[in-house]
Amino acid sequence: MRYCINCCIHLLPNDLHRQCFRCSGPNHHNQKCPACKGEKRIPLYTDSKQMKLLAVLEVRTDHRESWNGFFCLRKGKLCSLAFGLIIMTLVMASYILTGAKHGLLLIPSPFHYGAFASNPSLLDNESLSDMKDHCQPSKMNVSYVKDYPSIKLIIDTITSKIEFMRRQRPDLEELRKQEPHMFSVIPAKFLPNSKNPCWYAEYRGNTTTDPYATNSYALYSKRFRIVFDYLRKVFWNHLYHYQGRHYRLRCLPHFYIIGQPKCGTTDLYDRLRLHPEVRFSASKEPHWWTRKRFGIIRLRDGFHDRYPVEDYLDLFDLAAHQIQGVLQSQAAKEHSARSNIIIGEASASTMWDNNAWIFFYDNSTEGEPPFLIQDFIHAFQPNAKLIIMLRDPVERLYSDYLYFASANKSAEDFHEKVSESLQLFESCVLDFSLRACVYNNSLNNAMPVRLQVGLYVVYLLDWLTVFDKDQILVLRLEDHASNMRYTMHMVFQFLDLGPLSEKQEALITKSPASNTRRPEDRNLGPMLPTTKAILRDFYRPFNTKLAQVLFDDAFLWQRT
Question: What are the EC numbers (predicted)?
Answer without folding.
Answer: 2.8.2.-
